[in-house]
Amino acid sequence: MISEEQLHTIDNHIHDWLKGLDELMPSLISDLKTDTKSSRFDLVTNVDETIEARFETFLKTHYPDHQLYGEEFHHQTDTLKTGHTWVIDPIDGTANLVKQLNDFCVILGYFIDGQPVLSYIYDYARQHIYKAVRGYGAFVNGEKIEPAVSKPLKDMIVSFNNKVMNDQTIHALLDQSFGYRLIGACGLDSIRVITGQFGAHIHTNAKPWDIGAQFLFAHELGLKMTNFKREGIDFTQGGPFIISNPGCYDEILDILNSDGGYQKV
Ligand code: IPD
Ligand code: CA
Ligand code: CA
């Protein structure tokens, strides 16, 4: 582990690095270049690639013994659970960036020997830096985020990708919740849960970089974050993921696991 002083030094350094993106973003966005990856819906841009490359340079310069695991260029997973590891999604919600110029974020998670110790979700368009510091809680632009107040599903908005669930599960979630919304960036859908605006965000196949920051926010705020069997998620693997207010967590998992499960046949 590291001392409290070192933790705060790194926190301040990362905060400055994130704010430094403000100078870079306008020119990157005005010169937006978009490519497709696995399908026409799977996009990558010069913004994604430049941010991940810059974070690599930042680590090499200031923290050369820290490892990086990132969506675009950093896929080595052998030693991530030992020592200092950063997980980055340089742009989460790339489709939103391309189509709406809004509702995208940078996700960063810092782990020491597999334990999350610092986490950031930067909603650049709204200029909101969300962070969690192990033992100190969670903050938005320096203001404390209150721990979760338990609420039942009937009073909460839920968020999930409706393309990947069967109709029965979707209708049960719609009928039993207050309502449905999807932002389309896992980090920002999760932020709505972190701030108490949504009851839960569900992702049936999250990648490690989609959820690298959420572990610590959940830990600090008393939220549930597991797979659909109510087990912890390996931060190097990802997989089925729910982040939820504790008051509606069991109700949602009962729906996902009932009558043969949520998957399309
Ligand atoms: C995507 C977003 C989206 C989720 C996708 C992710 P990306 O991340 O988080 O909400 O449904 O599965 O791939 O590709 O924009 O970083
Ligand atoms: Ca992502
Ligand atoms: Ca991404």
From TrEMBL:
The keyword ATP-binding does not apply. It comes from the Bacteria. InterPro entries: Inositol_monophosphatase-like (IPR000760). Keywords: Magnesium, Metal-binding. Mg(2+) binds at E71, D89, I91, D92, D210. GO terms for biological process: inositol metabolic process; signal transduction. This is Inositol monophosphatase. It comes from Staphylococcus felis.
